[in-house]
Write a structure and sequence with these properties.
Radius of gyration: 24 Å
GO molecular function: RNA binding
Shape: elongated
Number of strands: 6
Protein name: RRM domain-containing protein
Helix content: 25-40%
Strand content: 15-25%
Structural class: alpha+beta
Keywords: RNA-binding
Largest sheet: 4 strands, antiparallel
Distance between the termini: 48 Å
Pfam family, one: RRM_1
CATH class of one domain: Alpha Beta
InterPro entries: Nucleotide-bd_a/b_plait_sf, RBD_domain_sf, RRM_dom
Order of helices and strands: HHHEHEEHEEE
Length: about 120
């Protein structure tokens, strides 16, 4: 349809349309951040709003000794904000936790586990 409009357009507009080229944004601007450094602290996202810290600990304890597990909750409702943190005793256990739980179901939702990134200070 656009080509018909170009063909029917006056000569000057045809020249304008024919010289127009689309260049997608550079790949550098759309690349994902580099993966986080391996650590014992995991970031878990995609949690159901009814998931609790105890449920998170129980699910991840199959893969090693969980030192700390916390679901971040809304202050008003008390429901999960959809993410949380799990800390293991060793790096090997943390790697097993990621391998065992990333992309798996927890409370009916697919969750994602990855190494936690350190917080960046506010600007």
């Amino acid at each position: 349809m656009a080509m018909r409009a170009v063909a029917a357009a006056p000569r000057g507009l045809r020249r304008l349309f024919s010289s127009f080229t689309f260049t997608p944004p550079s790949s550098a601007a759309t690349t994902a951040p580099p993966p986080a450094e391996p650590s014992t602290n995991l970031f878990v996202s995609g949690l159901n709003k009814r998931t609790t810290s105890e449920g998170l600990r129980e699910s991840f304890s199959k893969f090693g000794e969980v030192v700390y597990a916390r679901v971040v909750t809304d202050r008003v409702s008390g429901y999960s904000k959809g993410f949380g943190f799990v800390r293991y005793a060793t790096l090997e256990q943390a790697a097993e936790g990621i391998k065992g739980m990333d992309g798996k179901f927890l409370d009916g939702w697919v969750i994602f586990a990855e190494y936690a990134r350190p917080r960046t200070p506010p600007a």
